[in-house]
Design brief:
The protein is mostly helical and 161 residues long. It has one domain. Helix content is 70%, strand content 0%. The chain contains 6 helices and no strands.
Length: 161
């Protein structure tokens, strides 16, 4: 499948999930970083885990890719259901864009097996991979700053009568 199509589908799904949950980028971004660390720690076990997903068969996504993406995304998907939220629309849009960008960059290794890397797709992939570390670093710095400026809803806002 075309590189850009796969990445756009993946990014749009994660954008919509983050947007409708209203969750802050900082918490979700740092959870993605935790998922990436877990992915690297356990990747030698993935083939054994993927063997348990034989029901996927010859589906579009290989069982190994599914396992890799599940380990990567699980911490942030768990936090989709709880944690600090954005109050305004602009924050939700920007936070969701950053979350989907970060998830794509962290997951690009797992997704590369699905991609037809030839011609312009290969050039696009090479440019992304060349700048990946810089983009990830910047996004994680923004995530930490976002966490520093967020607070749980209701926390610290006690009304006195």
């Amino acid at each position: 499948m075309n590189v850009i199509v796969i990445l756009v589908i993946y990014a749009v799904l994660l954008f919509l999930l983050a947007f409708f949950s209203k969750r802050r980028f900082g918490v979700l971004g740092l959870a993605l970083a935790a998922g990436y660390v877990l992915q690297r720690l356990w990747e030698s076990e993935f083939p054994a885990w993927a063997a348990n997903l034989s029901f996927l068969g010859d589906w579009v996504i290989s069982p190994l890719t599914v396992v890799s993406l599940l380990v990567l995304l699980t911490p942030s998907l768990l936090l989709i259901f709880g944690g600090p939220v954005y109050k305004g629309l602009l924050g939700r849009i920007l936070g969701s864009l950053l979350y989907s960008l970060l998830a794509v960059l962290f997951g690009i290794g797992a997704l590369s097996g699905l991609m037809d890397l030839s011609g312009s797709s290969r050039q696009f992939f090479d440019v992304v991979m060349l700048n990946r570390d810089y983009i990830l670093t910047g996004a994680l710095i923004v995530a930490v700053i976002d966490v520093m400026h967020s607070r749980l809803s209701g926390f610290g806002s006690i009304k006195k009568k």
